[in-house]
């Protein structure tokens, strides 16, 4: 079966629908920028272990904690916008994109392509009671950590 294209049509209907379905199944947005979100509650600091990295509820962000403190990163892969998934704990924490195989270290740096850029980081705030808030409108450098009160 051949598909007919009208003048100026560069993508077949079948190709478009296949691409759309694939994006829906893998969580791809087609964008390489982080998915937008506002402020996200990430629980209490006492419940976030050193060496952990976990997705925050249904938000497009994950919270991590290392010896320097708390940090937050997008779950949006910089290759084509699919949702990445953290796995492991401690020094073995890794982040992988299930759509095209990109891999990132626990701080969001690319360790295997096709992604060519690191994951975006966001500001983290801890209130006096230890409640953690991630500010999705405020990107910060990958080295930024929020200290954890003793």
Descriptive overview:
With about 150 residues, the chain is mainly beta. The protein has a single domain, classed as Rieske Iron-sulfur Protein (3-layer Sandwich), CATH 2.102.10. The protein contains one helix and ten strands, in the order αββββββββββ. Strand 5 and strand 6 form a beta hairpin. The longest helix is centred in the N-terminal third of the chain and has 14 residues.
CATH topology: Rieske Iron-sulfur Protein
- The class by helix and strand makeup works out as mainly beta
CATH architecture: 3-layer Sandwich
Give the strand order of the largest sheet, numbering strands 1, 2, ... along the chain: 1-10-9-4-3-2
Distance between the termini: 68 Å
Low-confidence stretches: 1-6, 15-26
Short overview:
It is built from one helix and ten strands, in the order αββββββββββ. With 150 residues, it is mostly beta strands. A six-stranded antiparallel β-sheet has the order 1-10-9-4-3-2, with no helix packed on it.
């Amino acid at each position: 079966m051949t598909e007919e294209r009208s003048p100026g049509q560069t993508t077949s209907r079948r190709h478009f629908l296949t691409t759309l379905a694939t994006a829906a199944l893998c969580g791809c947005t087609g964008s390489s920028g982080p998915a937008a979100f506002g402020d996200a509650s990430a629980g209490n600091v006492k419940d976030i272990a050193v060496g952990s990295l976990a997705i925050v509820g249904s938000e497009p962000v994950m919270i991590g904690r290392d010896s320097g403190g708390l940090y937050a990163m997008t779950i949006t892969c910089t290759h084509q916008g699919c949702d990445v998934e953290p796995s492991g704990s401690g020094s073995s924490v890794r982040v992988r994109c299930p759509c095209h195989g990109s891999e990132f270290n626990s701080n969001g740096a690319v360790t295997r392509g096709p992604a060519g850029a690191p994951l975006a980081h966001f500001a983290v705030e801890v209130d006096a009671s230890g409640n953690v808030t991630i500010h999705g409108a405020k990107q910060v450098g990958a080295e930024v950590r929020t200290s954890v009160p003793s």
